[in-house]
């Protein structure tokens, strides 16, 4: 590759184009579906100029929360993926590498199979996210404890601990699912683990949105040490970073963000892997400029993918995780092939 | 005046009670065969290894008692290979050297950017600032890493075999650059002739111990080369440079 223009003009242009793409995807997401609503009417409804009508209900109560949740989850997973790739110095890292999604899945299956909370009359739309978050937290604590030895936490230990915890938790999840007496448990858990935004509701938005904004804000503030992590353990240390402490703190932060997002969306894969690499091709690897671009691109990507998931097999609502995996898998392979010989994996 | 001093630094079985001093403005070389402890010694100085005994002092302050940030303000390190995981520009790479002077959330100011530009100009690659770092030649990369050390504004620059993997032309360029900066330098070197020419004083390590120290002309003797490196050699003073020059003799030639 030759000279890359990193001027502020180009950067503003990239941000503007991505923001327009997100707006376009959102508008399409509100207008298209089983019922097609003209774009002009959608704009009237969103800006509050429309009379109450069935269309208004569809746009405001069904599609808008779903589009917003898609944007929040897409942005969050992409940002977390970017950060984790720097943190464990592995370009193939994503939010699920460190056992978080397996933990969340295990939590959800426990809630479904044992019917937790149903005795108290709690809806599954509440108990499932709670179970997912608890499971993600459990995985986080396990991985953290395993990865830390003698007060040090290295990237490779973190990856190995994450993979090990993920295996054990997925095995437990499968065990619970196959031994459960009721068939619908299996289906419910399966559907959740494929990832989807079908459960989006207004009251399920404030928490993930707040967590996304706080988490992304903090991570952008940490852009400088994140850049240092790119030159490796020793390189970052001699430039003044306490790598072990930094890695532990950012690992906890990213796990919490992922845990909350996954609790509401299920395990949607590959966004955290695919979007960061695409964003780096656009604006380079420096995190202060990279992270805002990643967030916008992730949001636009998931809103678009979710629109496709709702429409390709309509009236069937395909879990969006299947679509992102269909796109992400080949991209992953392309990334592997493209890596120069001898480069660290 | 002594700026950097190690007092009996040891590291496991790899380094044994090494005493070393570097004076203000001096360029001091550490030489020795592979595995003699050069890199271990440097790591104990710049702090990625904690000595099992002894200590390193900068201006009388114990370096191992400092946090990584304070240490990075005093000692800058030029690694053998400074590759980043993803593609950063040369400017971004050099600007990392400002980190020890910043709170972690602070962005670079115009003053930082000016320092980076000045450093790039000083090492002669001002025109490469916006190029991707991996696209640079080995010599240019080494210059960029020296520029990064400069913006760190350290008291001492530590260089671990900065000429490794470089063509001879770039080896000469990089070492000339480093010794003409006027900084205080501690460097590990493989090539004895380069060490003899560019360093004010040398420490010779063998199996983790200092076996000789002093100006190159006093240290590099046929006797030392025979015991430490196990080679026969002649050492002459080359008239054009005035530096001692080592000529290695093949076994058969020396027997004749």
From TrEMBL, chain A:
Principal subcellular localisation of the protein: membrane
Gene Ontology cellular component list: plasma membrane
Pfam family, one: FecCD
GO BP terms: siderophore-iron import into cell
Localization terms from the record: Cell membrane
Alphabetized InterPro entries for the sequence: ABC_BtuC-like (IPR037294), ABC_transptr_permease_BtuC (IPR000522)
Topological type in the membrane: Multi-pass membrane protein
GO molecular function: transmembrane transporter activity
Residues that span the membrane, as ranges: 67-88, 95-116, 122-146, 158-178, 204-223, 249-275, 290-309, 318-336
The keyword DNA damage is assigned to this record: no
Keyword tags: Cell membrane, Membrane, Transmembrane, Transmembrane helix, Transport
PANTHER family reported in the protein's UniProt record: FERRIC ENTEROBACTIN TRANSPORT SYSTEM PERMEASE PROTEIN, PERMEASE OF ABC TRANSPORTER-RELATED
Family indicated by similarity: Belongs to the binding-protein-dependent transport system permease family. FecCD subfamily.
Name this polypeptide is given: ABC transporter permease
Gene source species: Streptomyces purpureus
TrEMBL record, chain B:
Classification via SUPFAM superfamilies: P-loop containing nucleoside triphosphate hydrolases (SSF52540)
Taxonomic classification: Bacteria, Bacillati, Actinomycetota, Actinomycetes, Kitasatosporales
Annotated signal peptide: none
Gene Ontology molecular function terms on file: ATP binding; ATP hydrolysis activity
Zinc among keywords: no
Naturally occurring in which organism (per UniProt): Streptomyces purpureus
Protein's recorded name: ABC transporter ATP-binding protein
UniProt keyword annotation of Methyltransferase present: no
Source domain of life: Bacteria
Keywords attached to this entry: ATP-binding, Nucleotide-binding, Transport
Domain ABC transporter positions: 4-232
Cited InterPro entries: AAA+_ATPase (IPR003593), ABC_transporter-like_ATP-bd (IPR003439), ABC_transporter-like_CS (IPR017871), P-loop_NTPase (IPR027417)
């Amino acid at each position: 590759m030759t000279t890359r223009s990193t001027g502020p003009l180009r950067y503003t242009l990239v941000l503007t184009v991505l923001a327009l793409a997100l707006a376009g995807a959102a508008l399409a997401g509100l207008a298209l579906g089983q019922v097609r609503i003209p774009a002009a009417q959608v704009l009237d409804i969103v800006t509050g100029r429309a009379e109450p009508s069935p269309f208004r209900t569809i746009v405001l109560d069904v599609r808008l929360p779903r589009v917003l949740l898609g944007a929040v989850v897409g942005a969050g997973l992409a940002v977390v993926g970017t950060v984790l790739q720097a943190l464990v110095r592995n370009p193939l890292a994503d939010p699920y590498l460190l056992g978080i999604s397996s933990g969340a899945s295990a939590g959800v299956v426990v809630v479904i199979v044992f019917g937790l909370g149903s005795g108290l009359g709690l809806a599954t739309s509440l108990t499932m996210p709670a179970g997912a978050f608890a499971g993600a937290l459990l995985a986080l604590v396990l991985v953290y404890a395993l990865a830390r030895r003698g007060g040090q936490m290295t990237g490779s230990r973190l990856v190995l601990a994450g993979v090990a915890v993920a295996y054990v938790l997925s095995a437990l999840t499968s065990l619970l699912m196959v031994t459960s007496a009721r068939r619908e448990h299996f289906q419910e858990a399966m559907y959740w683990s494929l990832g989807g935004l079908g459960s989006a509701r207004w009251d399920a938005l404030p928490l993930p949105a707040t967590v996304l904004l706080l988490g992304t804000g903090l991570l952008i503030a940490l852009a400088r040490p994140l850049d240092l992590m790119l030159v490796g353990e020793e390189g970052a240390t001699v430039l003044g970073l306490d790598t072990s402490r930094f890695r532990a703190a950012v690992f906890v932060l990213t796990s919490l963000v992922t845990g909350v997002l996954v609790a509401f969306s299920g395990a949607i894969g590959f966004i955290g892997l695919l979007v960061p690499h695409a964003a780096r091709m656009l604006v380079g690897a420096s995190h202060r400029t990279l992270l805002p671009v990643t967030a916008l691109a992730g949001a636009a990507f998931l809103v678009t993918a979710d629109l496709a998931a709702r429409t390709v097999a309509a009236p069937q609502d395909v879990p969006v995780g299947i679509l992102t995996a269909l796109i992400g898998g080949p991209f992953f392979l392309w990334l592997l092939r493209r890596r120069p010989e001898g480069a660290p994996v | 005046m002594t700026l950097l001093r190690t007092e009996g630094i040891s590291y496991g079985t790899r380094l044994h009670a090494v005493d070393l001093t570097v004076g203000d403005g001096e360029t001091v070389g550490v030489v020795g065969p592979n595995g003699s402890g050069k890199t271990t010694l440097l790591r104990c100085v710049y702090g990625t290894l904690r000595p099992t005994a002894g200590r390193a002092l900068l201006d009388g302050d114990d370096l191992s008692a400092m946090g990584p940030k304070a240490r990075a303000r005093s000692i800058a390190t030029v690694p053998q290979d400074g590759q980043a995981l993803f593609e950063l520009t040369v400017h971004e790479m050099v600007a990392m050297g400002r980190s020890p002077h910043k709170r972690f959330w602070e962005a670079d100011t115009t003053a930082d950017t000016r320092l980076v530009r000045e450093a790039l100009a000083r090492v002669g690659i001002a025109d490469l600032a916006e190029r991707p770092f991996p696209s640079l030649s080995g010599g240019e990369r080494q210059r960029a890493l020296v520029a990064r050390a400069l913006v760190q504004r350290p008291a001492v620059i530590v260089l671990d075999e900065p000429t490794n993997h470089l063509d001879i032309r770039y080896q000469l360029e990089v070492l000339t650059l480093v010794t003409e900066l006027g900084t205080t330098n501690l460097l590990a070197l493989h090539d004895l002739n380069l060490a003899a020419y560019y360093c004010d004083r040398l420490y010779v390590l063998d199996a983790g111990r200092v076996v000789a120290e002093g100006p190159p002309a006093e240290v590099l003797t046929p006797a030392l080369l025979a015991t430490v490196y196990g080679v026969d050699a002649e050492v002459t003073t080359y008239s054009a440079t005035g530096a001692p020059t080592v000529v290695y003799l093949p076994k058969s030639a020396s027997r004749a």
